[in-house]
Amino acid sequence: MVFLEFEKPLEQLYEQLEKVKEVGENGVVDMQSTIEELEGKIKQTRRDIYANLTGWQRVQLSRHPERPYTLYYIEQMCRKFVELHGDRCYGDDKAIVGGIGNLDGQTVVIIGHQKGVNTKMRQYRNFGMANPEGYRKALRLMKLAERFGFPVITLIDTPGAFPGIEAEERGQAEAIARNLFEMAQLRVPIVCAVIGEGASGGAIGIGLGDHVMMLENTWYSVISPESCSSILWRSWDYKEQAADALKLTAEDMHGFGIVDEIVKEPHGGAHSSPEEMAKTLKRQLKKAIAAVQEKSVEQMVEDRINKYVAIGPVTHAK
Asked: If you ran DSSP here, which 8-state letter would residue 264 be given?
């Protein structure tokens, strides 16, 4: 198990539990009561730690190396999934995966960021930072969904769109802007879920939808706490203060009306029980799709546009 800095009390308890179990397995002393006592302490300590997490601690949880990523959720949620590749223009971006899936008998198009589960795969997936061809691939799949009347699901988990010069040369900003323009008018339901990090245009490039949800220990912001800290204080040392000032947690986003729903995670975060998290997410995605499908296409598109128009209204001083 990988423990984060604020989880150190849990790590110590787990170490004690392992030692006690070893003594019990040797059969010299009956340690069952001690084991039960330690397990109770672990549960209570976990509840205490997770009862009042700071913004920075939720950022850390969203980046946990054992946290489930898009392909895991797809594997758990879909009876069958066929991945589709390429933007038919430049190439296939491995940071964004997408294809056609069967969600309990309903055909859907699923698109999401994929970070990679180890060092080699993270390099292969560019750490979930998509190039323009990734967003153009996503748009191609959304247009495919529109043609056949399939709902679209997007799973957001990125530290941001790739900022390299080659991405800018191939039109990074235009690709993201085009996605926003097309998604606003797409004539099929779009349900979005932030499953990890939701940073800047890299997230919103596949994040405009009829219903947007965030998992409990995720974040959604125009900039990461570290980058914000480096701009304001010329140092990363103030990232915790930056995380609080950015108001980037699921609770903050729901309060601002940016997202429509917060999806509860198992105690200890999504990584503590990935299968349970996948079941919960699947249930909420199906529920959201069904609700959007009750509307006519015209009403759905109008409501979607009005939803984003209402975010951050502009006022003019008299």
From this structure: P
- The C-alpha torsion from 31 through 37 and 38 to 44, rounded to 10°, is 170
Residue 181 to residue 204: CA distance in whole angstroms: 12
Q: How many CA atoms lie within 13 A of 129 on its CB side?
A: 13
Q: Is the pLDDT of residue 25 over 80?
A: no
Banded model confidence at residue 112, pLDDT cuts 50, 70, 90: very high
Burial of 299 (0-12, 13-18, 19+ CB in 10 A): exposed
| CA pair distance 30, 24, nearest whole angstrom | 6
Backbone phi, then psi, for 221, in 5-degree steps?
Answer: -160, 165
Helix (H, G, I), strand (E, B) or coil at 212: strand
Kindly state the greatest CA–CA separation across the chain.
83
Report, at the CATH architecture level, how domain 59-309 is classified: Alpha-Beta Complex (3.90)
Contact 292, 202 (CB under 8 A): no
Q: Is the pTM of this model over 0.85?
A: yes
- How many CB atoms neighbour CB 86 within 10 A? 13
Rounded distance, CA 165 to CA 175, Å? 15
Nearest to 206 by CA among 187, 237, 182: 182
Q: What is the CA radius of gyration of the chain?
A: 21
SS3 content of the chain, % helix, strand, coil (to 5): 55, 15, 30
